[in-house]
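Table 4 source record.
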Amino acid sequence: MEYTIDDLAQDLYLNAAYLEGRLALPDNLQWFTNLWESGANAEQWYPFVKDFSHGMTFRQWDHIWQWCTILAEDIEDAKREFVSGILGWY
């Protein structure tokens, strides 16, 4: 069976929904919110990222940190940036 661009788009949509759901879990959301509110740096975020992503390296995370606005002024924007960054790594 051929894998099409529509299949890719559907997979990305499902993976994004999965990551958004994981981030919405109370423990994950609280951890994320605490880091976001404190203005934590990439190193301070890394334990959460490593747990959330099931093993992303710090180097991979640092690359995402540099290209995504994880500390956006609005927490909803920050969550979208975070999920997009993690999704891009997968």
